[in-house]
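# nightly structure sweep
# worker-07 picked up a monomer target from the shared queue
# config: single-sequence mode, recycle default, output format = structure tokens
# input follows
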Amino acid sequence: MTIGEHAQYIARHRAERGAYFRGLSGAEQMAVFDECSAYVQRDLLTKLQVADIVALLDQHDPGVAEKILLRISDAKRRHAITLQLKREIKEKIDVVRRFHQQATLGIVDQHYVLLPDTATVADVAEALDSHFDETGRIPVMLVHHAGKCIGEVRPGDLVREEMTSSITAHVRAVTMLTYTHAPHAIATLCVEKNIHKVVILDTDESVLGVVFARDVNALFEELPSESLYEFAAIEENEHAFDSVKKKFNARYRSLVVNLCTAFLAGSVVGIFADTLKEMAILAMYLPIVAGMGGNAGIQSLAIFMRSITLGEITLARAFPAVSREVMASVLQGSINGVITGTVAVVLGQSAMFGVVVGLGVMINLIVAATFGSLIPLTIRALGKDPAIFSGIILTTFTDICGFLAIFLLAIALL
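# output follows
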């Protein structure tokens, strides 16, 4: 049956209205209810339970939902429905806004109008004017077919059309996502895919609201540049044509810290100076071990910094992610360790020497992945910005652990 036929049946069979209406899907209920006369609508509202009315209102845009609520004469019942509806909407929006810790409920915009695809240009103009008069905001004009959102119409596309013409030919596709998707999915669409707006749907495909890319970007707009500059230990306000003095003042503190950590790593080599004298060939492999560890650590650090920025991860729930990162590093370390050891043997070293340098590379890659994951999470858990010194701390740990690993293995096995 079509929506019109359902509406006619309900209008003619008063005794069966409530049961028949409840047997329709959520989308059908919305479309059929809107087809009914005001008298039938009021009668239906008296036959439906609170939960049924909440589900019906949830299908409509906020403006229409308010008008439907006003048709419920019992003030106490109307208040109970309003509270439950607001509670459900808030719970769903709370799921959406997890993509960023500073996102508020307002991130899911409620200024939208939902019109049927049978509407005319005049209907769009009337709905737009009504919403603007009530709220002072221009709404997004969404279009539904039999209760399910199929796209949007933009007022600019209709200005040259006759008021009586249908909007069907002017419906544009719009990106839609259910609120149960992973929180970072919305941020990814807005920040990386250059999507201007995302219509957020409930699990029954009713519209929950609209997220605009400008609002998402407002939460992230300082993060990419800050992360880039701070990761390189350069102040955000430094530019290519700054004076020598300004460049010096912007960088010397972080470079002094880096120098101190370099001495710390170098002291490990000093401790094993005698071992290095006996096996001078080890000196050739120290930069390899340190370099491989540094690169692997930066990869892990970048991944976890991004996840922290998007609100995907915290230290409290990091174990699965960190454990997978470490297991991946075991595989990567095994491959690179075998290659390094094989090259050492090909270059004339003993098989045991190949084992030492190979294990050294493997151990350092595992250490690098572990610290690359945990350092930014720990710094963020302490309430600090992980972008500032994560790189320096990571480099120090990987260098120290890599040098210790290769020297201790050399003492034990060679």
